[in-house]
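User: I'm curious whether this sequence folds into something compact or stays loose and floppy. Could you predict its structure so I can see for myself?
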Amino acid sequence: MPESSGSEVRQNVTFPSGEGTAHGYLALPPGGRGPGVIVIQEWWGLNDHIADVTERLAREGFVALAPDLFGGSVAHDADEAARMRRRLPVERGVHLLSGAVDYLLSRPETTSATVGAVGFCMGGAFVLHLAAADPRVGAAVPFYGAMREIPDFSRLRAQVLGHYGTKDKSITPEALEHLRAALHDQAGISPEFHLYPAGHAFFNDTRPSYHPESARQAWTTTLAFLHRHLG
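Assistant: Here's the prediction. I'll summarize afterward.
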């Protein structure tokens, strides 16, 4: 049964993914209908923080879905998280996420013809991999997602807003410029990158790396961006 948190409705859902079934966490807005947004987890899994972000988006008027990329597993330390991440090939993750796009666009509550994708750390990289593979992503918002390799962006149709910390050693200025050039040259997109005086995972308010002012600014900018491009 769906549960109510404040005035939004939240529920665990299942949806087809390839030949199998995937799981996710869905939150509906107070008005019942709105643009669709996919929320992509960090390497810790679909934990309470990602569920909270999903609910926050719902309270802002979005139909928000967080697909579970790890099949119910949640990491308790970095070593476990790294092992789970290694067991998830990019292609399989993108395939599951495309199934989530199918499901979200099929929901009667979703009013947008395209979806937004917001992701954090590992999920930030998956935002761009998904947008590169699926032109139904109309707005892509990676938070500090280091890319192991740049995908082919020739099919990308999304506008891109990225959030990065200047103290994040996993993402260099050179890597961001390489990403910016690839988006521009392959997709004709001029991404909007915002830099903050913070380190990695500055948005996660359950981690020591949390930087409240940077998180607040990034969230405000993200909401405006999603509403502008999704309706």
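Summary: The beta strands are 3-5, 8-17, 20-28, 34-40, 63-67, 110-120, 137-143, 159-165, 192-196. The radius of gyration is 16 Å.
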